[in-house]
Amino acid sequence: MNRFQDNDIISLLAAPPRYELGESTGPDLRLGDALDADALGGLTLGYGTAAGDPQLRAAIAAAHDVDADDVVVTAGGMHALFLLAFVLCERGDEAVIASPCFPLAGNALAAVGAAIGVLRLSFDDGYRLDPRELGALLSPRTRLVSLASPQNPSGVAISPSALSEMVKLMAEICPDAWLVIDETYREAAYGDNPVTATALALGGKVVAVASLSKCHGAPGLRIGWAITRDAALRRELIVAKVNTIISCPRVEEALALRLLTQCAPVLAERRVLLGDGVQRTAAWVAANADHVAWVRPDAGALCCIRLRHGAFDDDAVNRFHEAAAANGARVARGAWFGDEARVFRLGFGRLSMAGLDAALAALTDALTKTATAARRSRCAGAL
Q1: pLDDT band at 45 (very low <50, low <70, confident <90, very high)
Q2: Single pTM value for the model
Q3: 240, 302, 341, 359: which is deepest, by most CB within 10 A?
Q4: Residue 112 domain-assigned?
């Protein structure tokens, strides 16, 4: 009877450990940061509009250089991904998704009965997507291609040239298919690094999805969006939204509008934090190079770390996670995202810099103890 696959990532919504490195967000904003008491005091608590508050849609549209009517506000980015899977894929229709990925994105396609082709991305290739490999998975029956840029869990962005080539391939092989790009981490640049442009300019069959959860630090608002210039698809999304949640809460939409109208200082502060976080993570990887390697991310508060084969056998991988937990630190296992077991996602944006240093020290201790025990075991076995 289960339509959705269970996943251990649910543990990230439980009580956090002392050092939460499994999350991919920055620090959470406080209600006061987005609160306009005078405006909220006069807000009526009726239903919101089906497409979303017009002012909120206009603010989202302005940040993407589209019209407000191109925007559908959803209950977080995941709601947008589910609605797109629901309206675009009949049972048995073909869909393609890149893996590793946020597991719920794949679960949405599976829940609607899509036949899923998986584009495998690897640590050894830096999680870089090859459009030719995507093309090999496409057919005239493909209805949807679901990608994220920057990707979750790696933080690696898909280059504009690769995206452009994919759009051309889809136009040739499956012209009726839609390219859905989850851009949730797009604005989470490091320091003064430029923010990559949205993929919407690539063509009318591209749909962009994002939310306030990651870059803006407001996952508790549960506000996201889907942007499409296609009026028929937009209408289907609105009808599907009405039949799932009717409308988003007006209070949350009002808070989201307030946040978006003053987001420049919020994003600037977070980009400094993320820049510091990625630099400290890079230094930690270098200091522990005998035990780990990483793929440096392009944006976002997350990256993929891999335990080295020479230092950790399969049993030692599990013991590392146990040792990290004993030290109060938690990372997100790569297997949750469809990656190899010795990879884990490390989030470096949620903690203070002092907290991140302490958390990385806890991981260093877990690495050293586990690798030492594994080496002793190998030596004993060789006698």
Answers
A1: confident
A2: 0.93
A3: 302
A4: yes
